[in-house]
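Weekly puzzle thread! Below is a chain. First person to post its structure in token form gets bragging rights.
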Amino acid sequence: MSEAATHSTATSPAPLPAVEAMPELLTSLEPLLREWLPRQRWFAGKGRPVTGFGLVAATALLPVASRVEDSRSGTAKAGLLHLLVRAHQPLVPAQGAPSHPGDCYQLLLGVREALPPRLAPALIGHVTEGPLAGRTVYEALHDPRLAEVLLEALRTQAHVGGLRCGRDTRHDIPEGLVPRLVTSEQSNSSIVYGDTFILKLFRRVVPGDNPDLELPMTLSRERCPRVPSPAAWMVADLGPTADPDGHHVLGVLQPFLHGAADGWELALSVLAKGEDFTAEARALGQATAEVHTALARALPMVTLGRPQLERLVAGMTERLEAAAQAVPALRPYAPGLHTAFEALADLAAEGRAWTAQRIHGDLHLGQCLRSASGEWSLIDFEGEPSKPLAERRMPQPVARDIAGMLRSFDYAAHSLRPPATDWATACRAAYCSGYADVTGADPRTDPVLLRAYETDKAVYEVLYEARHRPDWLPVPLAAVHRLSTDTGADTP
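Winning reply:
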């Protein structure tokens, strides 16, 4: 954490009773959560039934008023409960399949006696038994009053039960910033406060240091301007009784880049107008290189020799074989795609080694913002949420990030009919040239490694699109057609 971060002993409302003493809370909420949780976009266990829940932690960030208190005050007061709940699901969606401990989700529940009409879309349900009997629970992030409670906890570095907020005091966080829930999130939830800060709340949480806090903090210390610096954060220190690893990162508050354009939306807009995007692509390559250079300077680097590269190739090969088994349209290309991984294995066998470092891990146009002045910023360093945290925090060749961005240009080009393939080719070349402007090394001069990573990414895309968006399947299939025959990938 930042050297400027300080810790406060300030406390907020008392936590709910210990988890062991309140099984009735989860019991009363379970019927509602069974219906509500699987419908959320950020729920990772879709397609598998929820067989039960486990309460990991429960804290009252704003106490739930009694009905007597409500009647005395003449107004219905909202309570705010913070829960960490584990959803038990079978490993496979087969009847009678054994359940595993399940993913842990962060829930923020508003509690009212009655829900006003403006909050109707946030309804979770009405509780009929237990400590909240007779109350209505709802998604708290839709309630501006409760969203303000979260910002105040971060601003004052509140410590409530197992929840702890910290902040970098170099950032001034004013009181009274008006909250606005962002509705376009997928795997997490975000609230913008007064167009000044944005709070990203992780929904599926795991113990350990989340790279979406760790890496921006590291880059802040390196004074890298390409990544918004964390202003505050919230963690849960649960202790060994609740979770052997204890420490969970729950949310990060960062400056909101007001007026910045999302890279994906910007690219689609430029394409729709038939305009050139190579200047922006080159600048984005420079920004990527600056981030990679700062991370390499700040964090340990490793050398990938033959044993490590053999494991890397084995993983790529296994993913290809599994995808070809699941998607028949991929099978004709599989032999040619295998040559991308075999070429990398051959170089490793000859003694070639590569340097690995911390990288973004899930880089594409949608993870980039361009300011009105034309400066690019990189965001969302969480990596692929479906991957284990230890894997997301491993050093990797920078070619993985670069391959992800090259694939993103290709996706944008295929948003048009017919696809703007020349546009994609020009953007890919400009991006690599911009990267070389900063590092002195053009990624295209290492074609074997770049082709292997781009092939691995395209195989992942084929499987994803076949399962979720069949209409988009031709996009990665066009890439695997090219990659199965083009041994040189892009050339300078």
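Puzzle host: Confirmed. Bonus trivia for everyone else. The chain has 13 helices and 19 strands.
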